[in-house]
Structures are given as structure tokens and as C-alpha cells.
Design brief:
By secondary structure, the protein is of the alpha+beta class. The protein has five helices and ten strands, in the order αββββαβαββαβββα. Belongs to the RNase PH family. Rrp41 subfamily.
């Protein structure tokens, strides 16, 4: 265990990818990348490369699934066979089904579905390359794609993970830290409203570590929000209009 921890972090607090404890990986978001989608976004979050497309509101099929009082939000998170080192089976895995459900439940509080009764909004997420923290990156792209589609939202949803590596709390866990670290905590936040829509924990944290990890993740979410906001502004206010 000592050997693994030494590989993950130096005594000076430099992580295996050269980042410091509170440093995010590079993030870039491009809006409106799919011609046939109502809204779309492409995100590179570290080495994660993820595409999100939104279709709808549109009629529900089969009709008996329609809700007369509200729209329905559906999400599908899928990892391409070539997204990981060893070729993945293209069929949906239990993990992908679970993450699809998690992303839907994290987005749902932000989307004003009552404005679209008897309709469905579909969010399709395709992971082209995975590098740890893909559920947070996918959630960030999906939220931007929903905004791009013109879906009324109470707020954007911004997600980022924190974790425990080599007995220290770190921001934005990468793949090596996710695999060999001590804890991973994905968090999603509606930044302007202050509502947390996702909180998961894989690993064990002491109570004080939990509080520190949570605050670290929330700081990361707010930084991600600025990137999301800037990406949307660049598409819709290219001429500097307010």
C-alpha cells in the first residue's frame, strides 16, 4: 500500500499527473456540435472525451407512458467499445444503467418538466474516451446540452469529484486515483441555487474528512460552472451582446 501511495503522490503533494491537491484537470466544452440534435455539447475533462445530445420535447412512445401533468426526462449513458484500454462489450452494462439513472436523477431537479406535459426529453451521452470521473464529466456535458436545446431550467447542473489519495483530500480524481485511491466522492450542484443534486461516496472517510471532501468537491463544481457558462456565452453571444 505504501508503494502505491508513493506512486500516486509525492511527499510535496504533487499527484501522479503533476497536479496539486486542489487543482482541476483541463476542461474544455464546445456547444452545438450535433446537427440533428435539438441541443448538444462535447466535453474534454482531463482525458475524458464525451458527447451529449438532447432530443425533444417530443411525443412519448408508447403513448401510455405519457404523463398528463409533466414531461419525462430520459438519460442514456453509454461507453463506446474503444473508450477504455480493453475493448468493452457494446451492450449496456449494469454500471452504465446505474450511471444513466444517477445522471437523470441529478438533472431532474433543474429541468422544468411541468412545462411539457405528455412529452419526453431524451439525453444521449456517449463516452468516446474514459479517464476517471466520467459520470461527472458526462453530467456537465448533458446540462450544457439541455441548455443548448432551450429546455427551461432552474439552474445549470455542475459536477465534480473529490476524493482521498495517500491520506490527503484531493480535487478531481483521475483514473489512477480512482482505481488505487482510498475514496471517491462525485458531487453535482445547482450553483446559483446552492442545491446538491448528486452525492455518492465510494470508500471510507472520517467525519472531518467527509466535510473537507464535500467542500472541496463543491469548489470544483463552481469552477466547472464557469467553464459551462463561458461555453454557452461563446455560442450565443459571439458578438459581445448581453
Amino acid at each position: 500500500m505504501v508503494k502505491i501511495m508513493t506512486q500516486l503522490m509525492t511527499e510535496d503533494g504533487i499527484r501522479c499527473d503533476g497536479r496539486r491537491l486542489d487543482e482541476l484537470r483541463n476542461i474544455s466544452i464546445k456547444v452545438g456540435v450535433l446537427k440533428n440534435a435539438d441541443g448538444s455539447a462535447y466535453i474534454e475533462f482531463g482525458k475524458n472525451k464525451i458527447l451529449a445530445g438532447v432530443f425533444g420535447p417530443r411525443d412519448v412512445h408508447p403513448k401510455h407512458m405519457a404523463n398528463p401533468d409533466s414531461g419525462i426526462l430520459r438519460c442514456r449513458y453509454h461507453m463506446s467499445p474503444f473508450s477504455v484500454t480493453e475493448r468493452k462489450n457494446p451492450a449496456p452494462s449494469r454500471r452504465e444503467i446505474e450511471i444513466s439513472k444517477v445522471i437523470k436523477e441529478a438533472l431532474q431537479p433543474a429541468v422544468i418538466l411541468k412545462d411539457y406535459p405528455r412529452t419526453v426529453i431524451d439525453v444521449f451521452i456517449e463516452v468516446l474516451q474514459a479517464d476517471g470521473g466520467s459520470r461527472c464529466a458526462a453530467l456537465d456535458a448533458a446540462a450544457v446540452a439541455l441548455a443548448d436545446a432551450g429546455i427551461p431550467m432552474r439552474d445549470l447542473v455542475s459536477a465534480c469529484a473529490a476524493g482521498k489519495v495517500a491520506d490527503r483530500i484531493v480535487l478531481d480524481v483521475n483514473n489512477e486515483e480512482d482505481q488505487e485511491g482510498q475514496a471517491d466522492m462525485p458531487v453535482a450542484l445547482m450553483p446559483n441555487m446552492g442545491n446538491i443534486t448528486l452525492l455518492q461516496l465510494d470508500g471510507i472517510l472520517k467525519p472531518e474528512e467527509f466535510k473537507t471532501c464535500m467542500q472541496t468537491a463543491l469548489v470544483g463544481c463552481k469552477r466547472v460552472y464557469e467553464v459551462q457558462r463561458k461555453a454557452l456565452m461563446e455560442k450565443y453571444f459571439q458578438n459581445g451582446e448581453q
